[in-house]
Design brief:
alpha/beta, globular, seven-stranded mixed β-sheet, RNA-binding, 787 residues
Length: 787
RNA sequence: GGGCGAGUAGCCGAAUUGGUACAGGCGCAUGGCUUAGGACCAUGUCUCGCAAGAGGUGGGGGUUCGAGUCCCCCCUCGCCCACCA
């Protein structure tokens, strides 16, 4: 058999490992730099088709750019902290660290089987102290500048994973990781103040050449709303302390005349104050009961049950600042405590939700005039902007994560752990099982780290008696918010990254990743970098110039691959049968990589790619005997080669590998028709194929007598003039209908085109002797005669 | 419910700026080569028509000499957000 892929791939990989082909020289400023980044994997220990799609296809571009003379940085690492390691520990009693490093070891080998040209010399492992030392250092910087803050807040809690979650990790009221319904808890937790950057994150999008849908998804997530604050004075008939007013946020201050009641969220501090005080509210019990009921509800129940509920505060009213009328105040859970001021003015005439509530509670719905801004300002209205974005909750009550570099003094005040004590090591003497029991904080759950004796002793020893550790670890999204900075200088023990290298290599030129990270990792990383930029720690505010979201490979049934559906496919099976190169080409050919569509796996498709490669082998081997370069003078072959070279290159730039491969197939079809294909032509073809099928191309290169590795060979350069022909076939239309064509010099005039057109019988017939009233002539393309 | 994207052949998909719609592949058909073939090679493959020709990019309208591409309305699917005032 001419194409023994197993042997060919093995020997190609051996050759590469000896040549150190893919190590980027970051200090080399002589060639144009290109930082190609792909989201690093979690070391689950199992390489699936999704990984192939992510890495093998992106690799095509890395290889192509290298051959095109760019200084390419294509690094890889592992996002190695996270729950699965810990769950394995709980379930099987293995050490999370051991579990993780073993998986990494396995995945390195699996990744190598793809023939991906990663630069392993810059590998980062987020779980390694040499890495998380700097995660901690950066966190400390954010803390010092007021961008990390510990505060009591209503947070989302996953009962199964026994940890809090960031807003972004709650999907439809369920835990993003395990799908368990989340509950709300009031806990003191660490937050990164991403909301301070809402405006910057929006503005930055305008500077980026990303697909509109990615930008739009981020804009929607940030959720900017422009409106105003208005004050509704309270009218009370009780003695003692006076509550002056309720501040509401509205995007429609002009509808204030129609506000017929005011609603407070059950979490609104005023509600507590009113019910717990001596105020003369006649239905305190009822209100308290309602608040308790609301607290018991999950987020989902609260939003899914659209039936409006609420309780009126009896004995207290508000004054509409526009009409000066006294209006009732309600507590209702359709108003959220975490957005705006937690209080709204209800305008049933203009707001659907208010309308529904008004109907149910029999409140007036009045048609009103609209207020001018001048009037609103006179009422004390102040323009305001609100965001849907919430601060990023980064505390996790889990073991296998980066320890938060904080200690508490005897009074409970948090202090950053000084840099000299970093890395602040994750203790090993812990009970991994999260207990969920309450602790010293505020009725919060207990983190696994709280079971470590060593950690407590460490703190006492360094900071003194009465000092206590922070027991939570950081959300793993913090780890991955800066890993691409570390790639540039992964061994540096004095700094998180080298300023000069960052200056040269940032921003990342192209970032390839999954759609699911649009409002998580991609947003976090942008925020993190903007913050570091403001602290003069990184040279660019926007870390990623281009962003490409890839699609999804579906199962044979067209559905999303999942173990429960039993429609998963094992890439190893196909690699064994058809070879890694065929699998790579298949994935690249399955659809446009620059559009996040979903592409069903097709068994015939993989074998078709294998056949294509076999034809390539036959072409090359069949012409090995020829030492002459007979066809290199043949203009049609030269044009075909030039065309393919330019097409493959351009399509690569657009991440359209499907059409690039189609161009190679067309080229092969043409070459197969030639009676004689020279060695030089075969060389060219194999070089064009190299980014796609790196192993086979390496093999054929050797057979043809190529020196060294094909992956160091320069991309074939063709003069664009080769493609420029003197003449072109021009479509001739009569009244917009195609009636024939003429062949004409590109320098030909409209008169010449007309003369030639009149010589074509079909065109003459269509004209029927009439003289065109209008002639549209587009050089090299079309001649349209309007009669 | 709102936002964004998409809809092209039996299937996956091509179509730089508005300029010959369907490249490439799959599948299918016919023929060749074969003891045989699920291998390989050749040819064909949007629809109607013997042909000349006519029609055709989810449906309807519009702009234009010319629309898959631009504009308006509708339908379907996908993704994101969703009681965010």
């Amino acid at each position: 058999m001419a194409y023994d892929h197993t042997a060919i791939e093995k020997s190609a990989r051996e050759k590469w490992s000896g040549l150190n082909l893919y190590t980027a020289d970051l200090a080399d400023g002589t060639r144009e730099k290109y930082y190609l980044l792909v989201e690093f994997p979690y070391p689950s220990g199992d390489l699936h088709i999704g990984h192939w799609y992510a890495f093998a296809v992106t690799d095509i571009y890395a290889r192509m750019l290298r051959m095109r003379g760019k200084n390419v940085l294509f690094p890889i690492g592992f996002d190695a902290f996270g729950l699965p390691a810990e769950n394995a520990a709980i379930k099987n009693g293995v050490d999370p660290k051991e579990w993780t490093y073993k998986n990494i070891e396995r995945m390195r080998i699996q990744l190598a089987s793809m023939g991906v040209s990663f630069d392993w010399s810059k590998e980062v492992l987020t779980c390694d102290p040499s890495y998380y030392q700097w995660t901690q250092w950066l966190f400390a910087k954010l803390f010092e500048h007021g961008l990390a803050e510990r505060r009591l807040a209503a947070v989302k809690w996953c009962p199964k994973d026994q940890t809090v979650l960031a807003n972004e990790q709650v999907i439809d009221g369920h835990c993003e990781r395990c799908g368990t319904e989340v509950v709300e808890k009031r806990l003191t937790q660490w937050f990164l103040k991403i909301t301070q950057y809402a405006e910057r994150l929006l503005a930055g999008l305008e500077t980026l050449p990303w697909r509109e849908e990615i930008k739009e998804a981020q804009r929607a997530w940030i959720g900017r709303s422009d409106g105003a604050y208005l004050r509704f004075d309270l009218k009370t008939d009780f003695q003692g302390r006076t509550l002056e007013s309720i501040k509401v946020f509205t995007t429609r201050p002009d509808t204030v005349f129609g506000a017929t009641y005011v609603v407070l969220a059950p979490e609104h501090p005023l509600v507590r104050e009113i019910t717990s005080s001596k105020f003369q509210i006649s239905n305190k019990d009822q209100i308290e009961k309602y608040i308790n009921e609301t607290e018991k509800k999950t987020e989902r129940e609260r939003s899914e049950n659209k039936e409006k509920t609420g309780v009126k505060l009896e004995g207290i009213t508000a004054v509409n600042p526009a009409t000066k009328e006294e209006i009732p105040i309600y507590v209702a859970d359709y108003v959220l405590g975490s957005y705006g001021t937690g209080a709204v003015m209800a305008v049933p005439q203009h707001d659907e939700r208010d309308h529904e509530f008004a109907i149910k509670f029999n409140l007036p719905i009045v048609d009103t005039k609209f207020a001018e801004w001048g009037e609103i300002a006179e009422m004390g209205g102040v323009k305001a902007t609100q965001y849907r974005l919430r601060d990023w909750l980064v505390s996790r009550q889990r073991y296998w994560g980066c320890p938060i570099p904080i200690v508490y003094d005897p009074s409970g005040k948090p202090h950053v752990i000084p840099a000299e004590h970093l890395p602040w090591l994750l203790p090993t003497d812990v009970n991994f099982t999260p207990t969920g029991s309450t602790t010293l904080t505020t009725g919060g759950p207990k983190s696994p780290l709280a079971s470590s004796k060593e950690l407590k002793e460490r703190v006492t020893k360094i900071f003194g008696e009465g000092w206590t550790p922070e027991y939570d670890t950081l959300d793993t999204f913090v780890d991955s918010s800066w890993y691409f900075l570390r790639y540039l200088d992964s061994k540096n023990s004095h700094s998180f990254s080298d300023p000069a290298l960052m200056q040269h290599w940032l921003p990342v030129d192209r970032y390839s990743g999954g759609t699911e990270h649009t409002t998580m990792h991609l947003l976090y990383a942008r925020f993190f970098n903007q913050a570091l930029y403001d602290l003069a720690l990184v040279p660019v505010a926007e870390p990623f110039k281009e962003r490409f979201n890839r699609g999804l490979i579906m199962g044979l049934d067209g559905g999303k691959m999942s173990k429960s559906k039993g429609n998963t496919l094992n890439p190893d099976e196909f690699v064994q049968k058809y070879g890694a190169d065929a699998v790579r080409i298949y994935l690249a050919f399955i659809g446009p990589y620059n559009e996040p569509g979903s592409y069903p796996w097709n068994l015939d498709g993989v074998s078709a790619m294998r056949k294509f490669l076999e034809r390539v082998v036959r072409l090359v081997e069949g012409h090995l005997v020829s030492t002459q370069n007979i066809d290199t003078k043949c203009p049609s072959i030269q044009r075909a080669l030039a065309h393919a070279s330019i097409k493959v290159s351009n399509d690569g730039d657009r991440f359209k590998f499907n059409t690039g491969i189609a161009a190679l197939m067309s080229l092969l079809n043409e070459l197969e028709k030639e009676p004689h294909v020279s060695r030089k032509t075969a060389f060219t073809f194999v070089i064009l194929l190299a980014p796609f099928a790196p192993h086979l191309a390496e093999h054929l290169w050797g057979q043809l007598g190529g020196e060294g590795s094909i992956h160091l060979a320069p991309w074939p350069a063709f003069d664009a003039s080769l493609l420029a022909t003197d003449t072109a076939e021009i479509t001739v239309q009569v009244n917009g209908k195609r009636r024939g064509s003429i062949t004409l010099s590109l320098h030909g005039t409209e008169e010449e085109a007309l003369t030639l057109a009149h010589e074509v019988p079909a065109i003459r017939a269509a004209l029927g002797g009439r003289k065109p009233s209008r002639v549209i002539y587009v050089v090299g393309k079309i001649l349209n005669l309007v009669v």
